[in-house]
Amino acid sequence: MQKIPNMESFARVSGISRPTVSKYFHDPDSVRKSTRAKIEQALKTYDYSPNIYAINQNRRLTKTIGIVVPYLADPFFAEMARNIEQRCIDAGFSPLLFSSHGRTELETDILRSLRSLKPAGVLLAPLGRSSDRDLLESFCEDVPTVLFDANVEGVGEAFVGSDNFQSIPLMVEYLCRTGEPPCFFEMAPVNPNANKRRRAYTEAMMGLGHQPHIVHVDGDGWAFEEIGHAEGIRAIEGRRFATNTVLCSNDRLAIGLLAAAYEKGLRVGRGHGCAMRIAGHDDHPFSRFTCPSLTTVAQDYEAISDHSVEALFAVIEASEEDRQRTETLFPGTLVMRTSA
Amino acid sequence: MQKIPNMESFARVSGISRPTVSKYFHDPDSVRKSTRAKIEQALKTYDYSPNIYAINQNRRLTKTIGIVVPYLADPFFAEMARNIEQRCIDAGFSPLLFSSHGRTELETDILRSLRSLKPAGVLLAPLGRSSDRDLLESFCEDVPTVLFDANVEGVGEAFVGSDNFQSIPLMVEYLCRTGEPPCFFEMAPVNPNANKRRRAYTEAMMGLGHQPHIVHVDGDGWAFEEIGHAEGIRAIEGRRFATNTVLCSNDRLAIGLLAAAYEKGLRVGRGHGCAMRIAGHDDHPFSRFTCPSLTTVAQDYEAISDHSVEALFAVIEASEEDRQRTETLFPGTLVMRTSA
DNA sequence: CCGAAATATTTACGCGGGTAAAATTACAAT
DNA sequence: ATTGTAATTTTACCCGCGTAAATATTTCGG
């Protein structure tokens, strides 16, 4: 199949003028039927596709959409990104995926290069605490941006996430009802969610008339399992868990703690002969396959990603005026498995 | 800080001609020192960066590098991609990351749009069996491509992966030496590696004078843990494992089988009181945190990604002539944990 | 079959910057 | 100071396509 270098030549061989061909590529239905037939015939005979760079250079807003997640090696974000990507494709956009890998410099680099790509919009799950707020703000002024997963107050056109103040009490209530009230196992918070979860835990416990017990451990970065494991062992050895039930700030931490308990010979579960109960939060894709399987709260991945995308499209289509920032929180659902 | 719309204006305010500024942006050292100082001074005073689309449109080879993996929700590929991304950035390229999500159509879509991006090169971990070979071939003719993880015979400028015929025998030998000879637990192969591993297993067993036992289970797609779990339970119930030791085709399958064994009340490990031993292959990032921790063969992630990138750079810099296709296999190392 | 509105196509120009070749400059050696 | 040469800078002309305005064509009521 003969390759055609540019639209000019392609227009010539299809017997149509170049601008009409250009119209066709933007919207095949915008040209006369007979014209369209001619073009599509030519498309079968010759190998041609418009040059992406030339297309975008002279257009005010491109068809690309940036997706930025803090840590792609976390299957939670990988799944989320997958969902979002698909929605964008379905809507005729070209998604570009970036991961900050938990590093502030990378996030800023990504935003910088994203800005020069002039994307139609960006879906951003920010690092959170360690994000460069000034940069974020100025970025969001240039590019329609929807935040998801982690909120940064006042930044972006919308925020979509899950409602920690609903999900954590849900779990606390369940744990209290079925056994000893839980301690809360957390690490240094990487984003606002962690803080909210701690507060939600404390409030829920107080509400039920129990004394909250927070086991706070050190550890930086995104190697949550590692932290949960190493610090879990230390916490167990130091008898830092006041009750036999531990609610972890997230599933990955719980997976680490599960490994710690196993190593220390503690049987985890709610049956007889079990020394401890462990619960998580997020319904991580691997939580079904831990031993024992992890009782957790499922975030509504799909609702969050779907709604994020829709919110972004709404912003893109709306004019500058209606820039009413919205925050949407989805409730979690209890996933009872065998660990608690 | 005042925004400057294009290079023309920027050149004017810095008192230099546009083409010289253009040169500067390609290589700051290629202009006279005094010129560079002027430009960098202006860069501090005004806000300007060249338009990406305009830059690339008229250049034969861009500075973008495509990275394509079959399934990004698999932390193995996520880690790999992270590594590769970083190397590309360090070398002054702009990596773009894509995931086929295990679907052939998506892989072809990605390759198609990648081709029109005119990337300097592409690092591709193909789906394997379900890849569109014709498309792959024609793609590789247009774009310098290095395959990694899964090979497609004869396609691309190079292949970099791990040596299944070294790693599997390593594990088989270890398992035979320390207990009952292993069965081999596998699912329908998604790529050539799976086939190689089965053959390597069979040969290794024969070589040691043992009868190979292959437990082949059904299951499509990339939900390996799910398959390992569901089919693992059936295999255990049906007593399909001829010995108490199971070598899984990969870690994710092993994670599923581990969950199955746990549910069936079978204690896994090599100590007394253990009913079975389970080993994996890949050293998946989560394998350290399974219960019990998974004995496996570590693929040399870093070596593979590093070498892939270097191979690609070599191809990019070399001329058309020296297109000697190379295959590089890295050996695995035994990671003894507690499951076998 | 006519004429006006609605569509479709063409004309003409611009976008932002790459890059060969010409012109200028710098620098070292006479 | 002069000259030769290498390094820089300019000149000049593209690239491939978007898009407003002008023109042509179709559609359709009457």
Automatic annotation (TrEMBL), chains A, B:
<dbReference type="Pfam" id="PF00356">
    <property type="entry name" value="LacI"/>
</dbReference>
<keyword id="KW-0238">DNA-binding</keyword>
<protein>
    <submittedName>
        <fullName>Transcriptional regulator, LacI family</fullName>
    </submittedName>
</protein>
<keyword id="KW-0804">Transcription</keyword>
<dbReference type="InterPro" id="IPR010982">
    <property type="entry name" value="Lambda_DNA-bd_dom_sf"/>
</dbReference>
<dbReference type="InterPro" id="IPR028082">
    <property type="entry name" value="Peripla_BP_I"/>
</dbReference>
<dbReference type="InterPro" id="IPR000843">
    <property type="entry name" value="HTH_LacI"/>
</dbReference>
<dbReference type="InterPro" id="IPR046335">
    <property type="entry name" value="LacI/GalR-like_sensor"/>
</dbReference>
<dbReference type="GO" id="GO:0003700">
    <property type="term" value="F:DNA-binding transcription factor activity"/>
</dbReference>
<dbReference type="GO" id="GO:0000976">
    <property type="term" value="F:transcription cis-regulatory region binding"/>
</dbReference>
<feature type="domain" description="HTH lacI-type">
    <location>
        <begin position="5"/>
        <end position="59"/>
    </location>
</feature>
<keyword id="KW-0805">Transcription regulation</keyword>
<dbReference type="Pfam" id="PF13377">
    <property type="entry name" value="Peripla_BP_3"/>
</dbReference>
